[in-house]
């Protein structure tokens, strides 16, 4: 029977972050995930690395401070998939007075060290503005954009590079303490069962955290999570500027309109209490109407439901703090650590947000120091994620173009933004476009598909077209079928 120091249950951003941190400190780690890595909450975010400007109104100063500090860390460590993004907040005096916005932005600028991003500013709109004519003032500030699903994959690779074993499509179906260790059963999608022993069990199952406690380890908890549905829609680009917009609504919430994949705008999110299976969440007509209504109350362009090219929904596992409004539930996190006198600790993770995943992971492993006195010190704050060992994206693209001068320019730029310096590994052995193999459409070649299957745990068309890339926005049904038909032939 295989034995590990740590078994992490859950392959979302918190789970892979904990696996990477622990493996880098010298612990033997196995991570299991019931589906694809990051397939649920961690690939259904608003794609932002941000402090959370609106959390200031809820007096979440500590959370905002930590998130702003992490924003700088992640911008430096993953410059291929995390990039600065300038936001404009249109001023509507009847919603929030100017003095309140200026005060909030002053705090946002100064709650943590701001190294790479410019300060906030007030700007006047002109006739070129995409906003309605009565909106003559915007407030600007900066945050970060992230490819959330690729972040999960890269952190999982970071964990693997440090020795962790990563097992997607593998559910932890049973776990019990015996003689000071955890004896567990891991079941893959084919039904094959693998028994594993672990000194410590980490429950990072996200929306399933409570279910795993109840059904998997049969333990009670004093904490609970609140499942909150967040939905997004993707439409043709609503403005040709590089700015994102943060729109205030009369209900006190905000909606982002974010430039997305060159041709599109990403609009979201909603916040609705959710009951049911987190794996089956879908956008509702009410959410669609809500998002369209907010955007149409600000922009000259009027959107209709018929213009939606894609939508997605996720369930956020928020730490329950009994607020009446789902939008006011804290985005902070909490740990619960239980153990028997003989050991076998169980660490359960409640809450969290993608921006603070690294800090959460570091704190989680720190909680286990008593059980692993010889483990190493924290290390992830200064460690580039795989492919992120460069300073400027433009200089990386220039260097890649020099090495792979025959590669189509658009394909090369996408590779740089998805794989960073790992583009060189992806293209190893290629000397011409013909060496990339079969072309499935929109710059997706056989070489990349093989790389994603061999190095990034991809199996299905959805893994490749929506999580490892965003090419699903462009693929026709015939092209998807062609890719689908190719994948089984690899095995």
Automatic annotation (TrEMBL):
UniProt xrefs under SUPFAM superfamilies: FAD/NAD(P)-binding domain
UniProt domain Alpha-glycerophosphate oxidase C-terminal: residue ranges: 380-476
Keyword annotations from UniProtKB, A to Z: FAD, Flavoprotein, Oxidoreductase
GO function terms (MF aspect): glycerol-3-phosphate dehydrogenase (quinone) activity
EC code(s) of this entry: 1.1.5.3
Cofactor(s) of this protein: FAD
Pfam families associated with the record: DAO, DAO_C
Gene Ontology cellular-component terms listed: glycerol-3-phosphate dehydrogenase (FAD) complex
Residue intervals of the FAD dependent oxidoreductase domain: 5-358
This protein's record includes keyword Amino-acid biosynthesis: no
Top EC class, one word: oxidoreductase
InterPro entries: DAO_C (IPR031656), DAO_C_sf (IPR038299), FAD-dep_OxRdtase (IPR006076), FAD/NAD-bd_sf (IPR036188), G3P_DH_FAD-dep (IPR000447)
GO biological process, one term: glycerol-3-phosphate catabolic process
Enzymatic reactions: a quinone + sn-glycerol 3-phosphate = dihydroxyacetone phosphate + a quinol
Protein name, entry field: Glycerol-3-phosphate dehydrogenase
Organism of provenance: Bowmanella pacifica
Gene this chain is encoded by: glpD
């Amino acid at each position: 029977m295989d034995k590990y120091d740590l078994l992490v249950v859950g392959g979302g951003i918190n789970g892979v972050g904990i696996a990477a941190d622990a493996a880098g400190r010298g612990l033997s780690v196995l991570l299991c995930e019931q589906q694809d890595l990051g397939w649920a909450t961690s690939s259904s975010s608003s794609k932002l690395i941000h402090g959370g400007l609106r959390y200031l109104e809820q007096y979440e100063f500590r959370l905002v401070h930590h998130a702003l500090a992490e924003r700088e860390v992640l911008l430096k460590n993953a410059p291929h998939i995390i990039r600065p993004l300038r936001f404009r907040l249109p001023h509507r005096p009847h919603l929030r007075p100017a003095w309140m916005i200026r005060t909030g932005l002053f705090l946002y600028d100064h709650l943590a060290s701001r190294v790479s991003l410019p300060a906030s500013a007030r700007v006047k709109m002109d006739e070129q503005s995409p906003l309605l004519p009565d909106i003559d003032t915007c407030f600007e500030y900066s945050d970060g954009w992230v490819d959330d699903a690729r972040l999960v994959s890269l952190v999982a690779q970071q964990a693997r590079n440090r020795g962790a074993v990563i097992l997607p499509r593998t559910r932890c179906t049973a776990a019990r303490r015996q003689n000071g260790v955890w004896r567990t059963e891991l079941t893959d999608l084919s039904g094959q069962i693998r028994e594993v022993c672990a000194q410590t069990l980490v429950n990072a199952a996200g929306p399933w955290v409570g279910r795993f406690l109840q059904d998997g380890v049969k333990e009670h908890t004093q904490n609970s999570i609140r499942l909150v549905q967040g939905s997004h829609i993707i439409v043709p680009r609503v403005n040709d500027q590089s700015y994102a917009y943060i729109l205030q609504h009369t209900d006190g919430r905000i909606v982002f309109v974010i430039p997305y994949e060159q041709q599109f705008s990403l609009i979201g999110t909603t916040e609705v209490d959710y009951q049911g299976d987190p794996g089956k969440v879908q956008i509702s007509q009410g959410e669609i109407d809500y998002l369209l209504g907010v955007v149409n109350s600000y922009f000259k362009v009027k959107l209709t439901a018929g213009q939606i090219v894609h939508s997605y929904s996720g369930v956020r596992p928020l730490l329950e703090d009994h607020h009446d409004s789902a939008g006011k539930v804290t985005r902070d996190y909490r740990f619960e650590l239980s153990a028997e006198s003989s050991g076998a600790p169980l660490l359960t993770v409640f809450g969290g947000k993608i921006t603070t995943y690294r800090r959460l992971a570091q704190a989680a492993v720190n909680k286990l120091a008593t059980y692993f006195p010889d483990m190493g010190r924290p290390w992830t704050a200064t460690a580039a994620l795989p492919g992120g060992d460069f300073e400027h994206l433009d200089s990386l693209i220039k260097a890649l173009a020099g090495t792979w001068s025959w590669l189509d320019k658009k394909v090369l730029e996408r590779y740089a933004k998805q794989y960073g310096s790992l583009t060189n590994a992806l293209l190893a052995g290629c000397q011409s476009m013909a060496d990339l193999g079969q072309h499935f459409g929109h710059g997706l070649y056989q070489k990349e598909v093989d790389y994603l299957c061999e190095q990034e745990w991809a199996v299905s068309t959805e893994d490749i077209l929506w999580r490892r890339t965003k090419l699903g926005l462009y693929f026709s049904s015939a092209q998807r079928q062609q890719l689908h038909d190719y994948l089984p032939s690899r095995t």
